[in-house]
From TrEMBL:
Protein name per Swiss-Prot or TrEMBL: Flavodoxin-like domain-containing protein
Flavodoxin-like domain location: 2-62
InterPro entries: Flavodoxin/NO_synth (IPR008254), Flavoprotein-like_sf (IPR029039)
Pfam families the UniProt entry points to: Flavodoxin_4
Organism: Candidatus Eisenbergiella merdavium
Species classification: Bacteria, Bacillati, Bacillota, Clostridia, Lachnospirales
Length: 69
């Protein structure tokens, strides 16, 4: 993941990190991703519980106000 994030040109792209976990949070992952793709515009990420449904995740993603292209 790090190699891809560091080598891809994210200029003009908007990214938001998310994860699912039943116990831990983002830790340093969010800041590491932002550093690896510093040319991107970053939105606040979110941690979903391990039991989050795909509907919950899609609702969050659709609410970001960005297109899928």
């Amino acid at each position: 993941m790090s190699t891809f994030m560091e080598s891809y040109d994210f200029s003009g792209k908007t990214l938001a990190a998310f994860c699912t976990s039943s116990s831990s949070g983002f830790g340093r992952s969010d800041s590491a991703l932002r550093e690896a793709a510093d040319s991107a515009s970053w939105l606040d990420g979110i941690r979903f519980s391990g039991g989050a449904s795909s509907e919950e995740i899609l609702e969050w993603a659709n609410g970001l106000g960005i297109s899928g292209t």
